[in-house]
Amino acid sequence: MLTYTFNDHKPLYSQLYSYIKTDIQNGILSSGEKLPSKRSLAKQLNISTITVENAYLQLLDEGFIYALPRSGYYVSKFHVQSFEKKPSKPFLLEDHHKHYSIDLSSHATSAENFPFSIWAKLSRQVLSNHQDDLMKSMPTQGTTILREAIAQYLNEFRNLKVSKDQIIIGAGTEYLYSLLIQLLGTHQNYGIEVPGYRTLHHIYDAYNLHVKPLYLDKKGIKPSSLKDVSVIHTTPSHHFPTGITMPLSRRMSLLEWANEEKERYIIEDDYDSEFRMMGKPLPPLFSLDQSEHVIYMNTFTKSLSSTIRISYMVLPPHLAIRFNDHLSFYNCTVSSFEQYTLAYFIQEGYFEKHINRMRNKYRKKRNDILSLLTESPLYPLVHIKEENAGLHFLLEIKQDYDYDHFISSCHTKGLHIKTLKDYGGKDDKTLIINYSSLSLASFKEAITILYDVLKKL
Ligand SMILES: Cc1ncc(COP(=O)(O)O)c(C=O)c1O
């Protein structure tokens, strides 16, 4: 006989359902056993027939019981063991984003540099003016308004004549790389710059793709290294992390290489081109390309914030058509709310003002940092390199040292720092100094730590 007591916290049918389910799981009600009729159980428990019926229906839906016409309800066939909970092993996930008091490897933007008040004003405008648009599904490539704004921006500031239909918006360059692998094919032989952007390496690895390391000379990728590759990735405006700017002659050689075969592509990652500090920027490979071999990529990670997760790529027309034919089943990964706000930000001229303001700020910060460095006791021990483009520069340590000991001593003192070796290079004596999120006070402290560590090595 089923005897259960009820409380006031949950609906009665739900309590009855749970009691019977638990009894089935514990084997108290066994497979094939007939349950009391709705009416008799209701009477026995002093509840309504409808309550019992609802509980039985729920058990029926979940397959714990079955009904036989004109006969009643029966417990389904189960092995009681299948309900036994196996104790799960406690586990701890490794935190891949360790926090240091000073992080010279961080690409973050400091909060004082994000245009919060304008962003808030534009977000409000978007929320009141585009309520219908925000609820509609958007094209795979991203909202029309943002793609138009980006096309106009590229035309005015990078001299790239592109249509909105060539632009694909995605949540970060790294996500767009996955799309590109799907678009260009896993049969391609990919080549990546070494040293270079490590995330790329991880992405190609995750797809089990064989990638060829492309070692660099002073001008960037060597054309002689391209014999057995078909798709290459490059950062010609400001190579990451060595900082070299690829000269025009080398850009032309890469284009010549790509032109030799139909299915050869150059992926041009222009990730921090907005922040060239001296001289005129060189034309992107995309603008020099006459035969649809270059894919242009850029991101708002450097210009706005690494947490905003908005990037885009510009495909040559035949790839834009291929994308539309084969990959338009995907939904765009950036929320339309953010896309509308960013589109307003660009179209109303705030982006250009923000970039100009940030370029001046970063230029001043870089100069202040370099002055601090040249006036410090560390200066005689180092050589400053590639400080004229982008948001990082290099610091070569003149003395010999033990790399592991150096890095771990810095970590112990709360300083996170990377060398070219951490990006796949051989050189473990050249440090990469990212300064976008660094305060002068922190940099001063970093200099002191570096000096102390080097003196004691
Ligand atoms: C070479 C390079 N490309 C792209 C990015 C930006 O990637 P994402 O758009 O995924 O933030 C970075 C970030 O630092 C980078 O160093």
TrEMBL record:
GO terms for molecular function: DNA binding; DNA-binding transcription factor activity; pyridoxal phosphate binding; transaminase activity. Keywords: Aminotransferase, DNA-binding, Pyridoxal phosphate, Transcription, Transcription regulation, Transferase. Pfam families: Aminotran_1_2, GntR. Residues 10-78 form the HTH gntR-type domain. Transmembrane segments: none annotated. This is Aminotransferase. It comes from the Bacteria. In the C-terminal section; belongs to the class-I pyridoxal-phosphate-dependent aminotransferase family. PANTHER family: HTH-TYPE TRANSCRIPTIONAL REGULATORY PROTEIN GABR (PTHR46577). SUPFAM superfamilies: PLP-dependent transferases, Winged helix' DNA-binding domain. It comes from Kandleria vitulina DSM 20405. Coiled coil: none annotated. The lineage of its organism: Bacteria, Bacillati, Bacillota, Erysipelotrichia, Erysipelotrichales.
